[in-house]
């Protein structure tokens, strides 16, 4: 569900924070505790920070990471705690809808924090740095366009898609049986493929961002732009808004139908994954707690 870290600067910090939840239980704490180094390297490699810019921006990053540890880790821990408890009972439509709603809330909170972190940095970018960022955006577009233009047989594309979903499922629950692979193939074939449309939309927003930077927009203006784009989705095209809901529905159906087929070993594997992630996000907190997250609030 999350964008490629190398290619999407505008959500780099969000990707770092949320990807930790999917990185593997044994690596979460190490990755989180070195997030400042990774984020700094990421933005430096995409923009080319000067020493002065880095020194000026570092307090903003440090404050954001401290805020994340204080305010957001309890929500991440609560999400995996909820998932763990529901998975032990069995995931039905109500439970899955609750979890997907919680995930959307977590996304919004992280995207809001991302906008606040990146805005001051982007506001200080000089002409050469803006040129560098624009080239990166254009190269990403060309790479994606070349990929979309490749002739692919529908049947082969559907198989590859089912394979990717299957590999992800196996990380969570262990080896799949034939019936489970058939469920994944059936549902993923029905989930809309939005890659090309998202590429076009993303590049339009990136171009608008470059325009703001060239006009010398201040940090507040840039933060508002990023928030409207990443958090509020204010000008998301109607077809993408509709398809996004269809994707959520498809993922929900997939989770419910797979859960009904879990063996005892798979359910144990799944619940252990979830519990370990919950425990990691509790351990990372200085004063461990679970945020009071409820489905009605998600």
Characterise this structure.
By secondary structure, this protein is mainly α. The protein has one domain (9-297). The protein is built from twelve helices and no strands.
Residue ranges: pLDDT <50 for 5 or more in a row? 1-26
Class per helix and strand makeup: mainly alpha
Overall residue-averaged pLDDT value: 83
State the helical fraction: over 70%
Strand percentage: under 5%
Give the termini distance in whole angstroms: 18 Å
Count of helical regions: 12
Gross morphology: globular
How many domains make up the 3D coordinates? 1
**Strand tally:** 0
Oligomer: single chain
What is the H-and-E element order?
Answer: HHHHHHHHHHHH
Note the main sheet.
Answer: none
- What is the rounded Rg? 20 Å
Short description:
The protein contains twelve helices and no strands. The protein has 298 residues and is mainly alpha-helical.
Write a concise keyword list for the protein shown above:
298 residues; 78% helix; single chain; mainly alpha
Which helices and strands, and how do they pair?
Elements: H1 12-19, H2 25-33, H3 35-47, H4 51-89, H5 93-123, H6 127-149, H7 154-173, H8 178-190, H9 195-214, H10 219-232, H11 238-259, H12 264-283
Helix pairs in contact: 1-3, 1-5, 3-4, 4-5, 4-12, 5-10, 5-11, 6-9, 7-8, 8-11, 9-10
């Amino acid at each position: 569900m999350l964008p490629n870290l190398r290619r999407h600067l505008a959500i780099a910090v969000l990707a770092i924070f949320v990807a930790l939840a999917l990185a593997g239980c044994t690596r979460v704490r190490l990755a989180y505790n070195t997030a400042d180094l990774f984020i700094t390297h990421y933005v430096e490699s995409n923009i080319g920070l000067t020493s002065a810019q880095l020194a000026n921006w570092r307090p903003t990053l440090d404050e954001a990471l401290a805020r994340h540890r204080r305010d957001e880790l309890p929500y991440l821990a609560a999400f995996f705690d909820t998932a763990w408890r529901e998975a032990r009972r069995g995931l039905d439509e109500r439970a899955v809808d609750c979890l997907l709603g919680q995930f959307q809330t977590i996304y919004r909170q992280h995207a809001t924090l991302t906008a606040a972190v990146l805005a001051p940095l982007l506001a200080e970018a000089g002409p050469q740095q803006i040129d560098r960022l624009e080239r990166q955006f254009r190269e990403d577009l060309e790479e994606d366009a070349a990929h979309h233009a490749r002739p692919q047989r529908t049947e082969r594309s559907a198989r590859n898609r089912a394979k990717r979903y299957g590999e992800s499922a196996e990380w969570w629950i262990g080896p799949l049986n034939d019936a489970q692979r058939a469920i994944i193939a059936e549902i993923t074939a029905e989930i809309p493929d939005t890659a090309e449309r998202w590429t076009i939309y993303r590049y339009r927003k990136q171009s608008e961002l470059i325009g703001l930077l060239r006009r010398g927009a201040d940090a507040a203006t840039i933060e508002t732009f990023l928030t409207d784009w990443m958090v509020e989705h204010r000008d998301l095209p109607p077809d993408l808004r509709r398809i996004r809901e269809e994707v959520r529905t498809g993922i929900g159906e997939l989770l419910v139908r797979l859960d009904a087929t879990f063996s005892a070993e798979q359910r144990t594997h799944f619940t252990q994954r979830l519990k370990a992630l919950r425990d990691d996000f509790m351990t990372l907190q200085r004063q461990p707690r679970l945020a009071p997250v409820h489905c009605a609030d998600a």
